[in-house]
Every structure is written in C-alpha cells, then in structure tokens.
C-alpha cells in the first residue's frame, strides 16, 4: 500500500534514489519509498495477514516451474526510460534474475508482479491509488506480462494481463476481477489457477 505525496515535477530519479536510500538508513520504521509518475509514495510496513497471503502465493507460484521464485520487495525500474521506481510486494521471476543488480533492478525476466493492499484508516487518503490505477499502467509499460492485485478492501482478486505493445495504448488489454472464494486463472507465462477461498481468512 502506498501513501501519495504532493507532485514533485522537478525531482529526478537520481534525486529520488538518494532520498530513498537516506530514508531507509535513518527510519526506525523501515519506510520504503516508490517513485511513479513523478511522485513519491511511501509503502506501509505489511501486517501479519499480508505476510500470510504472500506465503500462500509463494507456495502456489512454485507450480510454475523449477527455478522460479516470488521475490519480495525487490525494487524495479519502471516507465519510459526506466525513470520510475516501484517495490512490488512480489515479483515472479527465475532465480538469478536480480543477481548483481542492486536495490533497483531492470524488470526484464519478470513474469508477474503482485500487490496486496494494506488497510488505510484515513478515508481521505489515496494510498491505494497506485496499486489500483497507476501501477497497472507502469507494469504494463515495462512489459511485465501479468499483474496480480489482491485487494483486501473489497475482497477481490484482479488479474491484469496482455500488456499493450510499445507505442500503443497504455495498460493491460485483459483485466479479470473475481471475489475472494472464486477460482482465477493466471495466464501464460505464469499458467496456474488460484483457488482464492483461503483469502477470506485474511480480511478484517
């Protein structure tokens, strides 16, 4: 889940990386920052249910094939010319994909990104806007084949797939949303089916 800051149109990605690095070193709460569409966002520290969901999904993703792993919180370079920075809750990729790349890696080789929304007590905040609206565009622009959003606010799972090709419209061409409890297909190159009944255990 992310908290939006005021637009900072003059901020470069290099300046953002310095801010993110300083914040990570100085914050007692392990604040994690993102930079999408020229705006800084703060990712909330995940709760226990969030962790349970990611563990469950990791087990399911092991069906994709040997050597595949759901990497947690790996920073990715996104958007045109890699001028965006995001920290998906999970990135499904072959082991070794991020070796030697440091905190912010190229998304090449990532089959799927995953976001699990966190709860926001501030009804006036747009902390989840990025997960629901901005990240589908950013992940599609980066050519990531599948984006999985597990939304605990409305108990739904949304699968975004088939990103528009370079130069075309933005976003994913196929978006499929189901309520917790239904089965949902994660299309190729992931190629597995999720039974989302268990997710009912992790909502308030």
Describe the 3D structure:
With 204 residues, the chain is of the alpha+beta class. The protein has a single domain, classed as Alpha-Beta Complex (tt1808, chain A). The protein contains 3 helices and 14 strands. The strands form 4 sheets. Strands 4-7-9-10-11-12 form a 6-stranded mixed beta sheet, sandwiched between helices. Strand 5 and strand 6 form a beta hairpin. The radius of gyration is 16 Å and the shape is globular. The two termini are 16 Å apart. Mean pLDDT is 84; it is low at 1-9 and 121-125.
Record the SSE blueprint.
Layout: E1 2-4, H1 13-26, E2 32-36, E3 39-43, H2 48-61, E4 68-71, E5 75-78, E6 84-86, E7 90-94, E8 104-105, E9 112-116, H3 129-141, E10 146-151, E11 156-163, E12 172-179, E13 183-186, E14 192-195
Report the total helices.
Answer: 3
Percent strand equals 25-35%
Following the backbone from N to C, one meets helices and strands in this order, namely EHEEHEEEEEEHEEEEE
Report the uncertain regions: 1-9, 121-125
Class from helix and strand fractions: alpha+beta
Spatial order of the strands forming the largest sheet: 4-7-9-10-11-12
**Roughly how many Å apart are the termini?**
16 Å
Describe the biggest sheet? 6 strands, mixed
Keywords:
single chain, 3-stranded antiparallel beta sheet, disordered N terminus
In short:
It is built from three helices and 14 strands. The chain has 204 residues and is of the alpha+beta class. It has one domain: tt1808, chain A (Alpha-Beta Complex), CATH 3.90.1570.10.
